[in-house]
Amino acid sequence: MLVTGAGKRLGREIALRLARDGWNVAVHHRHSVSEAKQTATDCEALTGRPGSADTFFADLGDEASVRALLPAVVARFGAVEAVVNSASTFDNDSAASFSFESMDTHLRANTGAAVLLAQALHTHLVAREGEGAVVNLLDQKLWNMNPDFFSYTLSKAALEAANTMLALALAPRVRVVGVAPGLTLTSHMLSEEKFAELHSQSPLGRSSTAQDVAATVAFALDNRSITGTTLLVDGGQHLMRFERDFSLM
User: Fold this and answer.
1) What percent of the chain shows pLDDT beyond 90?
2) Span 2-248: which CATH code?
């Protein structure tokens, strides 16, 4: 099992949940070296198997680096059955400030890397005559559009379209499932008070927690009848109209 961006935040919670379920976990990182090592240590403690987790570097904006990632994981663990694309570039731009450079940065890391890793997993599983799955982390804002984080949103919209195409192209070896959280974790752009206020703005009175999202990823990996669709895990936030991105409200 490879989880990208697993050194911290949502990727870490997903890695821990999957380790708790018994998976060997490849913890991908770019800059978060110490955090990734801690995640791997914690995953090993949860599985109770020394060597059941390890860290792997890749720059998801660099094609050669991405193409080298899954073979490195295979060399370490012998086989890989699933990839969770959790890592994400999330820089703010708008229709007014949009540039090819910003679009390229987001599409490479958020869309292209996920497609290449799905491609690599499929090649690996065909050679092994195995089956597996890819889970791509998306965003509820694709079903509740606003114009903020313009390039990020474009990249996630492209990834959501890729889910459908990959599910068709890679079947029956590889299932491809999207998971779209709502507001899940706070950031430097939100105070704790503002985060709590926004988190409660949903039909269910709460948006997703990291544990909710990780549980949905685990469900998507376990249920062999799901492919080519997206599971929204947001307390119903996609049913409400938000004029701005949560980070800017």
Assistant:
1) 87
2) 3.40.50.720
